[in-house]
Amino acid sequence: MPDHQYHIQEQLFTAKTLYRELHQRTTEQLKSSTSWVFNDLVQLAQGNPKVDAPQLMQHINQSIVLRRQYMQLLQKLAFANSPVQAAASSVAEISSRKSAEFELLFKRDKQFSGQVYVILKIPHSIEKHHNQGVRVNCCSDKLISSVHFPPIEDGKTQLLMEESDQKFINMFDAEFAIYLS
Question: In terms of domain of life, where is this protein from (predicted)?
């Protein structure tokens, strides 16, 4: 069997298994919460900008089961990732996160203190990133945050973020894994 078909079958198996587990363990939660379905988790993990990410992230972060399932989906569906970084022996700030597929740069605004340009470079981006943009998921054992970047142009995109924004702090923190979708 070609590797591509095996990979697709593996993704489908994972999605079906997670759906079954979600349905069994969270039936009561789903009845009492805002209407959303497993497909919303899949769409968020695939980087769909039309998903209500803030509300869904709130649900994910309130449930260890949903957090674990979302992490499993990200591991299977993400375009690229950067694992948790090794602890440095010095206290110097990191100025970038790099992997084979992308580079995330942090450049402080010289005119306005407290603001940082977050530049995402993807040298070999896919068509979806040129049309819909890129979702950056920052994941730890206790928290997942998600930031949607505008569409890629000339291999890069950027956001201007406040230094105090928790989403920026998570991207900047070497103890968070990063998944791009």
Answer: Bacteria
Question: Checking DSSP bridges between strand 115-121 and strand 177-180, what pairing results, if any?
Answer: unpaired
Give residue 151's pLDDT.
Answer: 92
pLDDT tens track for 76-135: 999 899 888 765 544 445 678 888 899 999 999 888 889 999 999 998 887 887 888 899
In a domain, 18, yes or no: no
* Buried/exposed 21-36: b ≥16 CB within 10 Å, e otherwise: ebeeebeeebeeeeee
Q: Which two tokens stand for residue 129?
A: 């990133």
- Structural domains of the chain, count: 1
Residue 153 is given by DSSP the state B
- Judge whether 4 lies within some domain: no
Q: List the structure tokens of 33.
A: 């919460």
Q: Which class for 18: exposed (0-12), middle (13-18), buried (19 or more C-beta within 10 A)?
A: buried
Tokens standing for residue 96: 């970038």
Per-residue pLDDT at 144 exceeds 90 = yes
Range of the domain at 111: 32-180
